[in-house]
TrEMBL record, chain A:
SUPFAM superfamilies, sorted: MetI-like (SSF161098)
Gene Ontology cellular component terms for the protein in this record: plasma membrane
Protein name: Binding-protein-dependent transporters inner membrane component
Iron is among the record's keywords: no
Transmembrane stretches, start-end: 20-41, 114-140, 152-174, 194-212, 255-278, 298-320
Family stated for the protein in its record: Belongs to the binding-protein-dependent transport system permease family.
Biological classification of the source: Archaea, Methanobacteriati, Methanobacteriota, Stenosarchaea group, Halobacteria
TrEMBL record, chain B:
Disordered as annotated region, ranges: 418-443
SUPFAM superfamilies tied to this protein: P-loop containing nucleoside triphosphate hydrolases
The family this protein is said to belong to: Belongs to the ABC transporter superfamily.
Transport is among the record's keywords: yes
Entry protein name: Peptide ABC transporter ATPase
Species: Halorubrum saccharovorum DSM 1137
UniProt GO MF annotations: ATP binding; ATP hydrolysis activity
Phylogenetic lineage: Archaea, Methanobacteriati, Methanobacteriota, Stenosarchaea group, Halobacteria
Record's keyword terms, sorted: ATP-binding, Nucleotide-binding, Transport
SMART domains: AAA
Domain ABC transporter: 6-260
Pfam families the UniProt entry points to: ABC_tran, oligo_HPY
Amino acid sequence: MISPRTLRNLRSELSRSLLAKLGIAILAVILFTAVFAPLLAPHDPTEQDLDNANIPPLGFTATENQTTSQMVDGEVQIVEEEVVVNTTVAHPLGTDSLGRDVLSRTMFGARTSLLVGLFGTSIAVVLGVTVGITAGYYGGRIDDALMRFADVMLAFPSLVLAIALIGLWGQASLRIPDPLVELGIASSEMPSDIVLPGTVIAVVALVNWVWFARVARGEALSVRDQEYVKAARSMGGSDLHVILRHVLPNSLTPILVLATIQVAAIILLESSLSFLGFSGAQLSWGFDIAQGRDYLSSSWWIATVPGLAIVAAVVGINLIGDWLRDALDPGIEGQGGAP
Amino acid sequence: MTDPLVTVDDLEKYYYENDTLLDRLTGAEREAVRAVDGVSFEVREGETLGVVGESGCGKSTLAETLMRLREPTGGSVTFDGDPVFDLSGTDMNAFRRRAQVMFQDPFSSLDPRMTAGEIITEPLAIHGVGTSGERRERAETLLDEVGLSADQIDRYPHEFSGGQRQRIGFARALAIDPEFIVLDEPVSALDVSVQAQVLNLLADMQAERDLTYLFIAHDLSVVRHISDRVAVMYLGEIVEIGPTEEIFEDPKHPYTKALLESVPRADTDERDRTVETIRGDVPSPRNPPSGCSFRTRCPELIQPPGLDLPQATFRGISEFRTRIENGDIDVDLRWEQVGDPDREDREAFVDSLREEAFDTELPDAEEETVSEAIRALADGDRETAAATLRERYRSPCEAIDPGLPAGEHPSACLLNEQPEDVETAREEWEADYEAPEAGASSR
Ligand code: SF4
């Protein structure tokens, strides 16, 4: 389905674009971190250490808010205690209010975000493309009905819809034993399960499939009028044959580009849900931001570090999306043609 | 004479506009677009029937309906004895194998994401013919046969030129050994030099494989060398059909004559041209003219009994009348040009419009009638203006719908031999002519 020419375009666009390389690098780092989190993380992300709570990142200064008042020359003076950290590298990005290592938490949080992003987008693509191509290819009443429904879905703010659905279904999640820990490659102190937040994945997919349906429908509408579709029908090709052999492959490029954008959107949505406490995830960037929110004035890093991770992931994925779009768009064969 | 392989009988394909649910709820009138309006002909085994017409005349819709890529709104098509529109299941499959189409557009007729080999073997794959290895071999043979080379089998369409793509499209049509191929403007998009090569290929393969062709084109010159017979289409109808040589040497229908005139021919001297070429646009198939559909552009429009004007004069007046009837004359604008905002100087208006519409003198009686019509127009009364002209210049061509009689070379024109019922209708009309009822001939 991917022609050598497409690959060539991807490669040449990549060598031309610095941003594309950057995007791939960012995503590669995040992916690597997520997969090997138990090996890379310095601490168990869930281990609490109240004696070492609220330690700032290495080299930063933190102001303790525990103020003492003193009487100096008959006036009350408020003395703030300054704590300078960090002489050891035990917590390079500091700890949160319960003394958990922020770096480790962020590394493990990447797993949740990427799992939700990947599975959520995949389900949304399958659902949206099926509906969209059916609507676009058959047109008429089927199209009207499906697309009206899609419009209604779009009319709801996605976060509200997501929260409503979670309220309806509860927070189911699947625990998968982490092979790195099971096989003894990583320290057994690390969390032994990867949590797959099932409800969240289903919800983000349901909230986002409409976009794919709309794009796929538009593509199917234009592809179905191509003469090669007419030709396939005149040879006796069934609808299924025409859809699978012609409509789908020729609709894929914009869907792929949209998918990269939607991965980023879905990661953001997952974070919002976790931040609001709806996802039930305990190891997630959004959850950590929510935790750190109360300490923003004193311990800014608790929320900022996972926040930066989200930004990095979204930027990286969007850069890759731009790369795909630039590489594949002029590559829609048939425009230029050979002399 | 060989047997017909394909018989088309009164085939009709209308599209309906304003036909959505909303339109029906609001009661908007549904409008029929008569793309194919009652077409009958047959394609004989082993022959090539050329179908020619300007774009929009319905020839492509005819091809697609005939192949049942669209459902007809009336009529029937018989393929080797089988009613095509009633086929289903294995019979339909058999039809889909025996009849193939080659499409016009070298760019959009080949899937850009498939290799030449995949494209050519697609019909075989659909019908489950052979193993994939056998199919590949077949594709290689076909590539050779259509003048490409077998080692191009893994190339993508964009790596080929327009002419080469059409060859691939033709190879695809040949792949499953059909008997009948509809060639839908197969060379229209190609350069003239390449056209000839592809046409030769089509002709060679036909001879080699005993193929029957329905060859659609918008240009008579293209079909001349490949067709045994030619059908000329205008506004969804066949206006003339006959053996190729007769069509070219002895065209009967004014439209065919005009088409031939517009084809530059080496053997015709400019001065020999007797027929003016056609002017004006093709009328919309939403609202075809009454009577003969060609009458709005016909150079030989028949004059009513008792009138004997020079043909150019009559035609000029008729065209002027069509403009009025269609509301193509902007009265407000004309008044502005006359420079009389109070609209009092009707004679200035008459002179101005008269000047613009006719570049020659008119006989006195006609001058009078035309001026009268224009005066009505100046008052903003388009109906009276049209009626004034209609009264005097009503042609039988707008009252009688000519038909296509039986025979080897019939034409749908009242100047030529017509079917019994049309002749009768015309006689009746002429008998009635002296006392025309008002509005009887509204367009
Ligand atoms: S019927 Fe009349 S209008 Fe039609 S082609 Fe013949 S002469 Fe022309």
